[in-house]
Amino acid sequence: MTRDEIDREVQKLGPWFHNMDLDGVMTAPRHFLGDYPRQKFARFAHAIPEDLTGQTVLDIGCNAGFYSIEMKRRGAARVVGIDSHEGYLAQARFAAKVSGVDVELRKLDVYEVGSLQEKFDVVLFMGVLYHLRHPLLALDIIHDRVVGDTLIFQSMQRGSTEIAAVEDDYPFAEVNVFDRVGYPVMHFVEKRYAGDPTNWWVPNRACAQAMLRSAGFRIEANPEPEVYICKRSEERR
What we know:
Blueprint: H1 3-13, E1 21-22, E2 25-26, H2 38-44, E3 56-60, H3 66-73, E4 78-83, H4 86-99, E5 104-107, E6 120-126, H5 135-145, E7 147-154, E8 186-188, E9 201-203, H6 205-214, E10 217-224, E11 227-232
Parallel strand pairs: 3-4, 3-6, 4-5, 6-7
Antiparallel strand pairs: 1-2, 7-11, 8-9, 10-11
Helix pairs in contact: 1-4
């Protein structure tokens, strides 16, 4: 395709949340977060193996396919991207076509990933948690049904970045612990945040980590403030 043809299709499929370089055509050049998600990926890309040869990858909430395409470029044998939004999937199909990579794309809700009937070596769950009404349920399903080894997780976080030591149990009369700085807290958004009605739950740092452990993931690295590289374990809290 010529650059003009690509540009016309990008405009037709817009607006885009992923700013992607499609043969010199930027899909969201005026993104409010800058060159997103490329700038973010640059801060944790080193924590993902450069060579994913032979690995299978599932990208949950793939949006326009930025991470799916990057994983395919690292040699993944198979990449499946899912999203519940047909508009994003259309963008991802076009981006993969222009980028010359083969990515399987399916319209699927995060709560329905078990229908894939497959476990993947690497599962990406990036920027989805806070859009869910039932975030811990989603993590439980992901752990039990699709993660074979590694979960790459990212969530917007707000509130304290400290992590307080938390005991295994507290007496019913203990109430002050819940106000302690660094206690795991999930902020509920009843209406909108950043103009987005799908922003429902926003964890603080301690809560994001606690939820991952509770769902059965062992955190091995935190290469970027919002990003965690996790391994699947059978231990749950």
